[in-house]
Automatic annotation (TrEMBL):
SMART domains in alphabetical order: C2 (SM00239), VWA (SM00327)
Family of this protein: Belongs to the copine family.
Gene Ontology biological-process annotations: cellular response to calcium ion
Pfam families in alphabetical order: C2, Copine
Name recorded for this polypeptide: CPNE9 protein
Gene, per the UniProt record: Cpne9
Molecular functions (GO terms): calcium-dependent phospholipid binding; metal ion binding
InterPro entries membership: C2_dom, C2_domain_sf, C2B_Copine, Copine, Copine_C, VWF_A, vWFA_dom_sf
Natural source organism: Crypturellus soui
Length: 552
């Protein structure tokens, strides 16, 4: 919009700046008259994680003779919440730098950024719009039953279950779902189940879906009853019409001339559904698709575009085990040439999350220190020394307050997490309608002192819109922290289990680049600790049946 007019007889062509060329590799022929409009093009460059190198990703179409070009060509990029995806847009009048997360996190996915390049001149602005591709976001719920399946057990009937396979491009099949086993019956009714369409057919509605019918055996040598093939498109027709699939056993078909089938599979919509297991039986064995429904699956981007804000809070360990900040051996020591491990962890996580917070104001606390003037120990003191408003302006503001606190407080102990977790949980409890989601980053060097209280705080917080990231710095062993990361066993306290897994713990040492590249170290750390945030946010929204607001 409003590009700088560099031409005398014609409007600027956004693909040219007079007398200069950019690294986009575009060249202008000097043979053309200045009044002749030149092709306009914007070039997108991307920067790899932890790299300073820019690579061309693509170019828009050409537009002639306008100061307000509207480009039609879209760039399709893979989006990763946990990565800082830097983009650069170039033309010959200027360039603009932006992170993909900034565009997605802006109101309605629409961001306007000034072009810079000609000293002392306004080069205009570039307007960026981001939208998520909606392909393959549906989820299917279906229920099946069967009649007159083959009898496989000597002393009983059969214990049938179904196995669904998605076909691959190379002709092989990948298992994508198993039903439960229904014991001792030839007329099983399986429970309804839900599966993403992308898992069932990878978004290709005509791709083959193979379904095997097995008889369960305790020793794992399940007996094959038969199989049939269908597709998502064919299954979806069962919403309105009756469909029957024969279940065939290829081995039996080869051996027995009179073999017909090992059952049939049929599907019907709400009207005319056949009954399974009781009442009048069909002439041949059959498996019936009792119900088939499709719903859209909401994504993390849906909620962000609908206005959900990520509120970022920091809590930093000021216990004495970190060492004197003035000494190079201290984990808080920052040399003139590199940041401390605490500062690196803070920047790695904060610089990504801040793109999804509109006001860029971040509450920041310290714990485990003696505060002036009376030396009182505190486990949730504001780094900006303002208890009424502990927020700092941007990640740089948090870093500034952190460094200032190192000069004024006395590192002490113990290492207590519960107070700051409860502090953020209190804020999260104020707004639970899905418009706000809180992320607490705790950076610590040692063994937790209040494990019981912390587990109780986590269990209570799991019902609230919040997540907790714990980054361990230094050489200490962090076995206790692994217990708080509920990936394997859900955190529990006094007989209560956490509603959701909301804690992610990582030791920073696992992500340090040994060549000394701090940018790469931060990228590695952020990618791992932030990867679970979108799913944790979605799990909260789903358990509360909160749908994203429409972007206005």
């Amino acid at each position: 919009r409003n590009l700088l007019d560099m031409d005398t007889f014609s409007k600027s062509d956004p693909g040219r700046r007079q007398g200069r060329t950019r690294e986009a590799g575009l060249r202008r022929s000097g043979a053309r008259h200045r009044s002749a409009p030149l092709p306009a093009v914007v070039v997108l460059f991307v920067q790899g994680a932890g790299s300073s190198e820019w690579k061309e990703f693509g170019r828009t179409e050409v537009i002639d003779n306008t100061l307000n070009p509207d480009f039609v060509r879209k760039f399709v990029l893979d989006y990763y919440f946990e990565e800082k995806q830097n983009l650069r847009f170039d033309d010959f009048l200027g360039q603009a730098f932006v992170a993909l997360g900034e565009v997605i996190g802006s109101q309605r996915g629409r961001l306007e950024r000034a072009l810079t390049g000609v000293p002392g001149k306004r080069c205009g602005t570039i307007l960026l719009l981001a939208e998520e591709l909606s392909n393959c976001r549906d989820i299917v719920t279906m229920q099946l039953c069967a009649n007159k399946l083959d009898k496989k057990d000597f002393f009983g009937k059969s214990d049938p279950f179904l196995v669904f396979y998605r076909s691959n491009e190379d002709g092989t099949f990948t298992i994508c779902h198993k039903t439960e086993v229904v014991k001792n019956t030839l007329n099983p009714v399986w429970q309804p189940f839900t599966i993403p369409v992308r898992a069932l057919c990878n978004g290709d509605y005509d791709r083959t879906v193979k379904i095997d019918v097995y008889d369960w055996d305790r020793d794992g040598s399940h007996d094959f009853i038969g199989e049939f093939a269908t597709s998502y498109r064919e299954l979806s027709r069962a919403q309105s019409q009756f469909t029957v699939y024969e279940v065939l056993n290829p081995r039996k078909k080869c051996k027995k001339k009179k073999y017909v089938n090992s059952g049939t599979v049929s599907g019907a919509g709400a009207a005319g559904q056949p009954r399974c297991g009781t009442g009048a039986q069909p002439a041949r064995p059959q498996v019936t698709l009792l119900s088939f429904s499709v719903e859209s699956e909401f994504t993390f981007v849906d909620y962000i575009r609908g206005g959900t804000q990520l509120n970022f809070t920091v809590a930093i360990d000021f216990t004495a085990s970190n060492g004197l900040p003035s000494q190079p051996t201290s984990l808080h020591y920052a040399s003139p040439y590199q940041l401390s491990a605490y500062a690196l962890a803070l920047k790695a996580v904060g610089e990504i999350i801040q793109d999804y917070d509109s006001d860029k104001l971040f509450p920041a606390y310290g714990f485990g220190a003696k505060l002036p003037p009376d030396g009182k120990i505190s486990h949730q003191f504001p780094l900006n020394n303002n208890a009424e408003n502990p927020s700092c302006a941007g990640i740089d503001g948090v870093l500034e307050c952190y460094l200032q606190s190192l000069r004024t407080v006395q590192l002490y102990g113990p290492t207590n997490f519960a107070p700051v977790i409860n502090q953020v949980a209190g804020a999260a409890a104020q707004v639970t309608d899905g418009s706000q989601y809180h992320v607490l980053l705790i950076i610590t060097d040692g063994v937790i002192s209040d494990m019981l209280q912390t587990k109780e705080a986590i269990v209570s917080a799991s019902a609230l819109p919040m997540s907790i990231i714990i980054v361990g710095v230094g050489p200490a062993e962090f076995e206790a922290m692994e217990e708080l990361d509920g990936d394997e066993v859900r955190v529990s306290s006094r007989g209560r289990y956490a509603e959701r897994d909301i804690v992610q713990f990582v030791p920073f040492r696992d992500y340090v680049d040994h060549s000394g590249n701090q940018v790469l170290s931060m990228a590695r750390l952020a990618k791992d600790v932030l990867a679970e945030i979108p799913e944790q946010l979605l799990s909260y929204m789903k358990t509360r049946d909160i749908k994203p607001r429409r972007a206005e």
